[in-house]
Specification:
The protein is an alpha+beta fold. The protein has two domains: about 170 residues, no CATH class; about 100 residues, no CATH class. Helix content is about 45%, strand content about 10%. Strands 2-3-1-4-7-8 form a six-stranded antiparallel sheet, with helices on both faces. Strand 5 and strand 6 form a beta hairpin. Helix 7 crosses helix 9 and helix 9 packs across helix 10. This is DUF4123 domain-containing protein.
Length: about 280
Amino acid sequence: MTRSLPHQWLIEQQRLGHTLCLVLDSEHEHPTRQALLKSSRPDQYLSVYGQTQVADLADAGPFVFSFDRPGDEHINELLNRPDNHWGWLASLPKGGLPTLVKHWRERLIIGERPHQALYRFHDNRVLARALKHLPVEAYPAYLGPAISVCYWQGTCWASTYNPAPGEYPLPDSPLWLQVPVTPQQAKQTRFLNARRFLLAEHVQAFASLAEQQNPDAWLRVTLDQAEVWHWQAPEQLEFLLTQHLQAPAQALAPYWQVRSAESPDEHFERVRLMAAFWQGDMPP
């Protein structure tokens, strides 16, 4: 496929009478989002996180825009830099923007409390990987009202048609959540979920940390430590984050270090008990 595929796709979808749509990663494309907000009518955009339980993250969450011109300058600027992973394009029935946003809001939160996470549907890498692994008959429940999608899949542009666009309930066991992810995607997902956890549960402490150092850099270093120790379970990550957040500028106490022949679970349980003892949460 050539680099002109998205332009051809946009022209063809409009010729067929469909609404053109951009799913934008607002967090990393803030200037583009602001420019689109200024040039769009109120009925041409929606925040996906708005009116959901993560509405406090709406400013950093994905926005969906409909637009009228295949040659829109803001869209062209995005198409010229696909490796920035800004999101993807979709075509919809006329007036289908609210339905598409409703569709993804219903698929946004994955997992059970207290170990819920956000599904990064707006990441073109997530979309491309799901469509690569899903059987065609699973496309409708995944893509919902989208008639067709166009996205960068790492080395080239691709487009995929939905065989039965429409509104579908969330399956009990969504196949797209069983798609294997790359180590890089898993690491980025852990980072985003960890930051969401800190903003939701420890916002004041996280804000204080930001006054002293770069909070994202601190978070990445802390998660790298968790990876070295093979602490990847939600309760292990939450424990490390909350404990380290109490004194983020200080090194962890010596008893945190792994001992010879100690398994990750044994290491975690020992450190958890030691931390509780030194903090007076349990008797000696």
